[in-house]
Specification:
Blueprint: H1 18-26, H2 31-38, H3 43-51, H4 56-60
């Protein structure tokens, strides 16, 4: 749904980096270089970003009014 606050494996805070990661990759920057610049060196944190699918808008469309 939304990016977790901390990495599931190592516990490093990662949520504050998500927006900047999205902005830079949307511009066409290389994902590996963006993660390196953000300080995501561990494979567990990198996998969290690469495997994340943002479904919050999809889930919100089913909310009853």
């Amino acid at each position: 749904m939304i990016i977790p606050i901390r990495c599931f494996s190592c516990g490093k805070p990662v949520a504050h980096l998500w927006k900047e990661y999205q902005e830079k990759t949307a511009k066409g920057d290389d994902k590996a270089k963006v993660m390196d610049n953000l300080g995501l060196k561990r494979y567990c944190c990198r996998a969290l970003f690469l495997g994340h699918v943002d479904l919050i808008d999809t889930a919100a469309s089913f909310k009853k009014s």
